[in-house]
Specification:
This protein is an alpha+beta fold. It is built from 16 helices and 10 strands.
Length: 448
């Protein structure tokens, strides 16, 4: 182990020496830029940047209007145009730098354009990084990778990678036998970002194939995609840490302690995660099923790791914890099949023929579009009430996702129309009041 990294006095001496070297190199750079031809190159570079700025101001509005007229193009092509529009100044600057370098090398010595060539290499590398990092969909991750790549290509082109690596390698902290340097952190962040990006691309492509596989049930597709994502991201994390030389032994001990803490402090979260896996394995519910839990009725939109998304008929989306679906009573209207039987209770007057009432009720229900013909409606007498003969009308549908209340309302309306057309009366409760002899009311009426 380097004594300068463990001895505070040695570390301070090393930092002072590094500061002196940086000051000396800065002084040398300033003196170098004062050389006539180098100063001319700096001036030319500044003038080219101003020219690129002016060209961008002149071309950008017209390009923007032309892009708006291409709204029918594919989305990927429009995204490329937007990126070109945003980086138009840098594109012009790269083209102007390389054109100037080529002309100066043709008319004078290469030593008089070496600084412009370095600037052209830097600008080209930054432009490539700007375009390449747009492939990363995650915004924070894209910015980290972009600025890290800017720093790396700059050091690479300037030939300062070895010095930067030594400087960052000496800036380290220690935890027992584990030494964590700034260079290791930067390497790990870059590799993890790259591996996560690759894992994300593979996961997306594989998920699209799994979702398109009709041989798998919807719940197995969701479970397969979740397991694939966990496996890919977990492998990317482990590979990234091992690639930079990070010892995973201490991480295993730490993860065990964190796991115990999670078991006590996040019991509900862990319970929902485990319940989500159980729901995916036993396939009791799946995306597209129509369920009712408590007062919530709707169809399953998606199965998440912690909750199930249920969309109701009124457009509301409920997030039901997975644990509630495991421990509570759930009505799955489409678990084994899509057939659902609905009952409607009504009553008619005693003066109406029950045989006619049953026939008219069956025909009225059969005339509704959503009522199944291969499972015809039936109507039964359920009892003789105080003022009506009570019936139950039963019919079948196979699209509960289309709503239950609306089909009941349509059948009730059809019954009303059919009863009106056939002279069938729907009675209402009637009471007969008798005034007894000698009562106070009878006496008052007699006196009056």
């Amino acid at each position: 182990m380097d004594p300068e990294t463990t001895d505070p006095a040695g570390r301070g001496t090393w930092l002072m020496e590094a500061a002196r070297r940086l000051a000396a190199e800065a002084a040398d750079l300033g003196a170098m830029l004062l050389v006539p031809w180098n100063a001319w190159q700096v001036a030319i570079a500044a003038g080219l940047f101003a020219l690129a700025w002016a060209l961008r101001a002149a071309v950008a509005p017209g390009l923007h209007g032309w892009m708006r007229a291409r709204s029918g193009w594919p989305r990927w092509r429009l995204r490329v145009l937007v990126l070109v529009h945003k980086r138009l100044r840098l594109i012009f600057y790269v083209l102007l730098l390389w054109a100037t370098v080529w002309m100066m090398r043709e008319v004078t010595w290469p030593s008089r354009s070496w600084l412009l060539a370095i600037l052209a290499d830097l600008a080209t590398a930054w432009l490539i990084v700007a375009f390449a990092t747009r492939l990363i969909a995650n915004g924070p991750l894209r910015r980290v990778v972009r600025y890290g790549a800017y720093a790396w290509v700059t050091l690479r082109i300037l030939g300062l990678t070895d010095e930067a690596e030594r400087l960052l390698g000496r800036a380290a902290i220690e935890f027992g036998e584990v030494r964590l340097s700034a260079w290791m952190v930067l390497q790990g962040a870059f590799l993890l970002a790259l591996l996560f990006f690759v894992a994300r691309v593979i996961a997306r492509q594989s998920a699209a194939r799994l979702y398109a596989n009709e041989e798998l049930s919807p719940s197995m597709r969701v479970l397969s995609v979740k397991l694939l994502q966990v496996g890919l991201y977990g492998a990317a994390f482990v590979i990234g840490l091992r690639a930079v030389g990070f010892d995973l032994t201490g991480l295993a001990v730490l993860s065990g302690a964190v796991g115990v803490g999670l078991g006590f402090g996040l019991q509900k979260v862990v319970s929902n995660l485990v319940s989500g896996v159980i729901l995916l394995l036993d396939r009791s519910i799946k995306p597209g099923d129509v369920i009712s839990i408590g007062e919530t009725f709707g169809w399953i939109n998606s199965l998440g790791a912690r909750y199930v998304s249920i969309t109701t008929r009124d457009g509301k989306e409920y997030l039901i914890p997975n644990e509630d679906l495991i421990t509570g009573q759930v009505v799955n209207w489409s678990h084994s099949n899509d057939f659902v039987r609905l009952d409607i209770h009504f009553g008619t007057a005693y003066a109406n023929d029950p045989h006619t009432v049953r026939r008219v009720a069956r025909e009225a229900a059969a005339g509704i579009d959503r009522v199944l013909e291969d499972r015809p409606p039936v109507c039964h007498i359920t009892g003789f009430g105080d003022s009506a003969v009570n019936y139950v009308l039963r019919f079948w549908i196979r699209d509960p996702a289309g709503g239950i209340t609306n089909i009941r309302g349509n059948v009730y309306l059809a019954l009303w129309d059919a009863f009106q057309a056939n002279g069938i009366a729907i009675p209402f409760p009637q009471r007969e009041v008798r005034i007894l002899e000698g009562s106070e009311i009878r006496t008052r009426r007699a006196d009056a």
